[in-house]
Each structure stands twice: as structure tokens, then as C-alpha cells.
């Protein structure tokens, strides 16, 4: 597993759960998540304050921020992205975007050492899902990058392999014939994905960072949609 630098905050709001985790100056990791009601706007600042307090640190002690960039809920991703951009800018610390699906897989593998292959699914509507597959590595190896998959294709050999564990960041998302488990601790997984100790504050990079939209229409503004762009 990657060595996580001290005082790193991770946040994910791509699904039903608002997930927050932080590493303290002592190297300990503290994580919290909401009940999965999708109330990210209300819960996010409260959870960040609580997780820092539980870790024995102040928000001003944060030296780096990681954000799950999706794919996932459009509204949830925008809430999380807006929050971390403001936080990273005010603290003058680097902001790093990570795959939410990889974070979910990493969290699952961290919690259960027997999990060797994880497929992460999120509802993409239209009888499709956002999907990605990962195998155990340091901490995970991407077997199949996040993509949009028709639900019927999940039963094929590319996705449904022996020993696969199926997880989702959505509390009430179910698929017939797929043993989906909810994963609420995604931020903990994000902390294990990359080592960004050498990365510095860059206002341009913070401004340019955007969620991962696998459907082009999701990235359009409300005004662009009204104009039929």
C-alpha cells in the first residue's frame, strides 16, 4: 500500500454517502461517513470538522486534499468539487483528483484481505451503469477503466468472473442477479491510491480540475442545455 503523507484530507461525494477521511501528523487515519441520505451539502462541512477534531488536528493543519472525481452523481460531484476547491484555495494546499470507483475498490480491499477482485457499479440510468474492475495491488490495479456498461453485459465473462466482489457507492442501488454491497468508506480508499507528497499548491490546476463525466451531456451547463448545445 502507498505511504500516505501526514495531514492529508480525502473527500468523496460521488454516491449516496458523504465520505471523509484524514491522516494526522502522528500517521493515524480517521474516517467518517454519512448515513447515505444524499445530503452532502449539509453533511460535508460538518464531517470535515468532526474528522479533523477526532484526529486531534485543526482544519488549518491540512497539507493536501484529495477528491473523488467520479463518475457518479452529478449533483454530489459538484458539491464535493466546489467545497474542496474553496478549501484548497484558502489553505494554499494541493488538490488531487482520484477515481471514486478506484477509491471504493481500495476501501473494500483494505477492509477485507480476502477480496482479490472488485467490480464497482453506480447507477447511470437508462438501464446502464458506471462500472470499473480492479484487482488487488498497491492497493489496487485497474483491470477495466471506468466506463458506461449496459446492465445486461454485466453477466458476461468480462465482468462476471469467479471470486468477484460487487460494490456500489449508492445505498439503495440494486441489480437483479448481482450481489451488490454498499461501500460508504470511499475516502479511506482514496488516501491509499497515490502518494502526492511532492506536489505543490497550483491555483491553475485547482481551477482546471473537474469531475469525470462519462456522458458529455452531464458536463453541460444548464444554459447550454436550454440552448440545445
Largest sheet: 5 strands, mixed
Output the radius of gyration. Answer: 17 Å
Beginning-to-end CA distance, first to last residue: 44 Å
What's the CATH topology name of the largest domain?
A: Nucleotidyltransferase, domain 5
Write the layout of secondary structure elements.
Elements: E1 8-12, E2 19-23, E3 29-33, H1 40-54, E4 64-68, H2 74-91, E5 95-98, H3 100-111, E6 117-123, E7 128-136, E8 140-150, E9 164-168, E10 180-182, H4 186-191, H5 203-208, H6 222-226
Parallel strand pairs: 1-4, 4-5, 6-9, 9-10
Antiparallel strand pairs: 1-2, 2-3, 6-7, 7-8
Helix pairs in contact: 1-2
Provide keyphrases for this structure:
Nucleotidyltransferase, domain 5; 6 helices; 229 residues; alpha/beta; globular; 27% helix; five-stranded mixed sheet; 2 domains; disordered C terminus
Can you characterise this structure?
The chain has 229 residues and is an alpha/beta fold. It has 2 domains: 8-100 and 187-223, ATPase, nucleotide binding domain (Nucleotidyltransferase, domain 5), CATH 3.30.420; 101-183, Nucleotidyltransferase, domain 5 (2-Layer Sandwich), CATH 3.30.420.200. It is 27% helix and 26% strand. It is built from 6 helices and 10 strands; from the N terminus they run βββαβαβαβββββααα. The chain has helices at residues 40-54, 74-91, 100-111, 186-191, 203-208, 222-226, and strands at 8-12, 19-23, 29-33, 64-68, 95-98, 117-123, 128-136, 140-150, 164-168, 180-182. The strands form 2 sheets. A 5-stranded mixed sheet has the order 3-2-1-4-5, with helices on both faces. Strands 8-7-6-9-10 form a 5-stranded mixed sheet, with helices on one face. A hairpin with a 5-residue loop joins strand 2 (19-23) and strand 3. The radius of gyration is 17 Å and the shape is globular.
